[in-house]
Every structure is written in C-alpha cells, then in structure tokens.
Amino acid sequence: MADMAKIKEVRERTGVGFGDCKKALEKADWDIEKALDVLRKESAVKAAKKADRTASEGRLAVLISEDCNIWAIAEINTETDFAARNERFVQFCDRVIEVAIEQGDATIPLLEDEKNELISAIGENISIRRVARIQSENGVVAGYLHSNAAVGAIVELSKDVAEINKNVAMHITSENPLVVSADEIPENVLARETEVYKAQALEMGKPEHIVEGIVKGKLRKFQSESCLDQQAYIWDRDQTVGALLAKEDAKCERFVRYQVGESLE
Domains in the chain, please, with CATH? Predict the structure, then answer.
C-alpha cells in the first residue's frame, strides 16, 4: 500500500490530522496497526494535558433499550459549542449512551480510551460527566430529550399510563423539580431555606410574631415549586402532577434530569 493510502486509512480510522498520522506511521515503520497504537498512546498524553481545562459545553444523549424496560441518560462535555456540534463528537455521544444502557455508571471508565482518541482528534478536553440508568421491575420508564440536546429527563412511573408517561418526562425537563415529594427534600435544604426566609422577613421589618407565618408560607411555595407531585402540570395548570397520576392510580417512583453544564463554571 502506498504511503499516502496508509496515511488516509489511519486518518479515516482515527480522525486525527494528516500530519499526525504521517508522524505516527513514520514512528511505526509505516505499519498501520502499530501507528494506531502510537496514536492511542499519544492521545492519552494529550488528554492528560487538557484535563484541567473546563469543559462546560456539550450535549446530552437519551436512549431506551430494545425491550423498552430501561432508559439511560448521559451528559458529555467539551469546551466549546462548536466542538459539541462536531460530527465525531455527536457520534461519540451516541456510543456513550449505547454502552450506558448496558453498563450504567461503568460506562465512564470503559470508554476512557475512545474518549482520549477523540480529544486528540478534536483538540479540546472532553468529559463523560455523568450517566444514569433506570430499569423498572414492575412499572414503566419513559424519557425525553429536548431538540437542542441540552436538557432532558428519564422517569419511572408505577404503572403504564400511555401518553402521560412521556408527558411527565417532558414536564420534568421543563419545570426542573428537585425531588418527587416533600419527604425527599433533605433536612439541610429545608433548614437553609428557613433561615433565608426568616432573615428576609426580619430585614423587611416584619414583627417577630408574624415572621413564623411568613416563613411557613414561603416554605409551602418552595415545596410546590420543588416537588414534582406538587407542581402544576404543564398541560393543565389547574391540576398538579401528583393529582394527575393519582387519577390513573399511578405515581412517580423516581426521575433523573440533566442539563448541560449545570453547576459547572
């Protein structure tokens, strides 16, 4: 095989620039497989050098298993929105979620080498930030990914309620609840909110004897905004998600919602 043909093959198999492909082949005495090994080693070094660079752009991937019993969601980050639209990056996201359906959290270390090769090809830091997988034994799972691939959710319901399954996943994506119900709100979160509301009321000059009532009212509002079962359903604001599901003798068991870059700087 001619030298140029070998360079082209390595390029097609790795996505690395022609110059780097040529250098790798020269180091490997023009043996393609050995050149690929050279590039893998070099990609790990390049990835390590880029690891401290913030990767807060990217995209989500959501997928359902063939038996419709498992949903998975993953966030894959890169440094720029431009790189997030790169065809190879999008393909890598598809690869991540396909593995996540089977492997869950184990996906991240399993794809370390492939991730490093992509870092070398794209030239930006890439991170498989998080992966979640929901499998339902007795209920049903559903999922939704917004068209911009930046926000999505997967959810488990206690029973199949037809189109409501996906609608609840869409609601979670849109309204960003923190928990399913009030009893799931951590005590430290309630304590923090209580302290903030009390300080605000006192700062406004409210008398001590009515501060408690103000705090209770604000906490009720916080719960109605933070708890899925208390949120007004986006397709019918006159009823809550909890009431909607109760009419169907169903309830939400758990959910996972991701948004690209949240809590990242």
Answer: 3-50 (1.10.8.10), 57-182+227-259 (3.30.479.20), 186-225 (1.10.286)
